[in-house]
Amino acid sequence: PVILSVRDLTANVNDTPILKGLNLEIKAGEIHAIMGPNGSGKSTFSKVLSGHPAYEVTGGEVIFLGQNLLELEPEQRSLAGVFLAFQYPLEIPGVSNLDFLRVAYNSRQKYLGLEEVDAFDFEDIIEEKLDVVKMNPAFLNRSVNEGFSGGEKKRNEILQMALLEPKLAILDETDSGLDIDALKIVANGVNQLSSADNAVLAITHYQRLLNYIVPDYVHVMEGGRILTTGTKELALELEERGYDWVVEADRVKAGV
Ligand code: ADP
Ligand code: MG
Ligand code: MG
């Protein structure tokens, strides 16, 4: 089954076209990576998928598990099983991480027609997930991401992901700024989630993450489009040769 199908997607930010005809299909059980130079539109794509209001879709379609994702509100997308780990996770002062996680968990339970859990039962659930990301329980009693280091924020994102068990997990440069131990923890969380009935889209500027999250497909994005697709060997080649040759090959192919 197809989890995500993106066809000829175009989108503007502040009336400037950023996505310029993006095509992508992700099937259940697959891990995809999008790589590309800075400014190629990777974060824009992830924000469009999450329904961020600053990004205006001007054409194309996005089908998620058979529904038109673009007509769903951001919260509905999340309930339907789209999870986005942000490049820069937001701090939410005054909201305890534990309460935040339980509300998110129960919203999804309700959406799925499953029973909501009380604070007591939630402790067992979250404890198991803390283990996945090797997080100290003390972080549950702090405000969401407030004063967390960059690495702790990323780890907290993965904790949310592990808890919500999305059908499509999108990681936008979750690896940037992480030391190798934190990187392995993030990768471990993703690998534990990954199964035959969900999919992962890992957006990254660096090949390093892909040593730990092994992708089935690697796409190169430039100028708001996917220029070429390969396997994990492509990521190694990009690391060695940079992106210019891909852009050049695309120009030659297009005859410009
Ligand atoms: P990437 O994640 O690949 O580095 P982005 O999606 O963040 O790329 O950015 C793509 C392009 O869109 C860049 O040229 C960037 O300057 C522009 N852009 C992104 N957000 C905004 C914004 N809020 N206002 C204006 N331009 C933006
Ligand atoms: Mg898999
Ligand atoms: Mg980005």
TrEMBL record:
Which gene name belongs to this protein?
sufC
This protein's name: Fe-S cluster assembly ATPase SufC
Keyword check for ATP-binding, yes or no. yes
Q: Which InterPro entries match?
A: AAA+_ATPase, ABC_transporter-like_ATP-bd, ABC_transporter-like_CS, FeS-cluster_ATPase_SufC, P-loop_NTPase
What Pfam families does the record tag this protein with? ABC_tran
Q: Where is the ABC transporter domain?
A: 4-248
From the broadest rank down, the organism's phylogenetic lineage runs:
Bacteria, Bacillati, Cyanobacteriota, Cyanophyceae, Oscillatoriophycideae
Identify the domain of life: Bacteria
Keyword Coiled coil carried by entry: no
Q: Organism source for this protein? A: Laspinema palackyanum D2a
Keyword list (alphabetical) reads: ATP-binding, Nucleotide-binding
Q: Which family does it belong to?
A: Belongs to the ABC transporter superfamily. Ycf16 family.
